[in-house]
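User: Please predict the structure of the protein below. I'd like the answer in structure-token form so I can feed it into my own downstream comparison script.

Assistant: Understood. Taking the following sequence of 87 residues as input:
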Amino acid sequence: MQSPFTSSSTRRLTRARYRRRRDAYHAAVPASPDGPDLALYVEEAVTRRMVEDVVEEVREMRDRMMNLLFLIAGSVLVDILTRMRGG
């Protein structure tokens, strides 16, 4: 089974998200000579947002894995109880 992180569609979406963030960063950076401090703040904000997005995606995957685990455990339990009843 192939990991969902290595599929081409996932890589494409990740690259697209990165490009959008990068473009937003470059659009927000001022052209003035006083810009480096502001540029650092903007870069930090963009990076923070990207990390928050990754955290949210990991949280969603963890929830899905837990749901799948409970589904499997529940079906095994039902199977065991059915066999015990002689069903």
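That's the full token string. Residues 8-85 form one domain.
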